[in-house]
Design a protein that fits this description.
Elements (H helix, E strand, L loop, with lengths): L2 H22 L9 H35 L5 H17 L1 H11 L1 H25 L5 H16 L1 H11 L7 H29 L4 H20 L28 H18 L2 H29 L6 H4 L1 H22 L6 H19 L5 H61 L15 H19 L13
């Protein structure tokens, strides 16, 4: 059996089992017809795969870095990633309101096209063979890539806010986690296969080609609302702030809308708390994803199943975390997101402490990291994927998810600027596991802060008349 198939097969089996189990759970009866659910699948599935391939085009830099050697050091890698994530984090100021104005379909198409162009340019830089100002050029191109990438989460949540009722959004949060997990699998395993089988530039060219294919598919299949797809629009039961008022045209109307939503957000501080929690999530998720791969490579870990199959294990952990968190949120806690986030942040805190004692015990470290990935993707799916729709409402969800997801990537930027410079960068220092102590220690206070904040939204529900139905 080919290596790629042996790694994909467990993921396919897991997805099949989850589909069967979820299908056999008691239904949340909302009156959706078979035609509606079929058309909704044809809407979110290609949109979701586009989002997964955006992840592939975002985290492929780690696979390329492993092949570039001293051309880009650990410190350079942290600097490049920090530049991109900070650009991503502040882009919500433009892209959130823009998505609310022109729709998630249009901005997802823009994300796919722009990210594809940026990846083609990064691949082209490697083809050119230049060694002058490589770090600066990668910073510029990766920042451009991340600007277009910042439309991704905003777009997918914006579109699905009109297609999923509040009472089934925990399930969508699980789907969101699955899509993230598949994207990580594509980025870490597929890109590693590509790097081993072809010149490094193809790590950038292949994701770009996939995004261009899905640009065409989305153009024909994806629609912003059920009504635009020939179905019936329905009340989604969320905090639909201002949905009865059409926005004023032009830039002035957009700015006025952002100010209005900002005031409403301040009247529901739960949004700000969720954003702060997701800042912590961004720090922790990137600390696990990127540095574990580099840690095992640079400390010459061999024969460890998780290290050898990091993309697959991230994917499996993320799928389980997203689905379990979504089902528990909807079925046990009445569509509240806070309890699940609190439980999973407790897991993160315990995991970060355990990591400090297992840096030199690879099997234990690998197991702890997988459990932590399960937890952090579960949190991210619940808050960015579900809570942003709940509290933002269909009309202004772009601004709200933009703020929340922007804070995720600002958290990542802080992580790269801190851990990226605190960790050993060159041999022989980076070959000694004990020298990586700052990695787990840096995650402990952030996990504790996230847990404290998550308990503050334990009973949070969206306000507004619609949410009561």
């Amino acid at each position: 059996m080919p290596i790629w198939l042996s790694r994909l097969l467990p993921i396919a089996i897991l997805l099949a089992v989850i589909t069967i189990v979820v299908a056999r759970l008691p239904k949340v009866e909302l009156g959706h017809s078979k035609a509606f659910t079929t058309r909704r699948f044809l809407n979110w599935f290609p949109l979701g795969l586009t989002y997964a391939f955006l992840y592939m085009a975002r985290y492929n830099l780690a696979a390329a870095k492993n092949d570039l050697g001293d051309l880009i050091t650990n410190e350079d890698f942290g600097t490049i990633k920090a530049a991109g994530t900070v650009v991503y984090g502040i882009s919500f100021l433009i892209n959130g309101p823009l998505t609310d104005r022109i729709g998630g379909r249009a901005t997802m198409l823009l994300a796919a096209l722009g990210a594809a162009a940026a990846n083609i340019a990064m691949g082209g830089l490697l083809v050119s063979g230049t060694r002058d100002h490589v770090v600066e050029l990668f910073m510029l191109l990766y920042a451009a890539n991340m600007y277009f990438q910042s439309f991704g989460a905003v777009s997918i949540v914006k579109v699905n806010a009109a297609w999923f009722h509040l009472r089934e959004r925990g399930t969508f949060g699980g789907i969101f986690g699955i899509l993230i997990s598949l994207g990580l699998y594509f980025a870490f395993d597929w890109c590693a296969f590509i790097a081993d089988a072809a010149p490094t530039e193809w790590v950038f060219f292949v994701p770009a080609a996939l995004l261009l294919v899905f640009f065409v598919i989305d153009w024909f299949l994806v629609r912003d609302t059920p009504g635009q797809a020939g179905q019936t629009d329905f009340e989604t039961g969320d905090a639909t702030w201002g949905d009865d008022v059409a926005p004023a045209p032009g830039l002035r109307g957009t700015i006025a809308g952002v100010i209005k939503v900002g005031r409403m957000m301040l009247s529901q501080p739960v949004i700000l708390i969720i954003g702060a929690i997701e800042f912590c999530s961004g720090f922790l998720r990137s600390a696990l994803m990127d540095w574990y791969a580099l840690f095992t490579r640079q400390t010459h870990v061999t024969g460890d199943f998780v290290a050898d199959n990091w993309g697959m294990m991230q994917c499996i952990a993320g799928i389980l975390g997203g689905v379990v968190a979504g089902v528990i949120s909807d079925r046990v806690f009445g569509s509240r997101r806070g309890p699940v986030a609190s439980i999973l942040y407790g897991v993160m805190l315990g995991g970060a402490i355990a990591m400090t004692f297992s840096l030199e015990t690879t099997p234990m470290l690998s197991g702890v990291v997988v459990v932590m990935m399960l937890a952090i993707i579960g949190v991210h799916g619940m808050l960015s994927g579900a809570a942003s729709m709940d509290f933002g409402g269909r009309k202004n969800v772009g601004v709200v998810v933009g703020i929340i997801d922007g804070l995720v990537y600002l958290g990542q930027g802080v992580q790269y600027m801190t851990l990226g410079h605190a960790l050993p960068s060159e041999a022989p220092a980076n070959e000694v596991p004990a020298n990586w102590w700052a990695w787990p220690v840096g995650m402990i206070p952030v996990s504790l802060l996230g847990l404290a904040l998550a308990t503050r939204v334990w009973n949070a529900r969206p306000k507004g008349a619609a949410a009561a139905h």
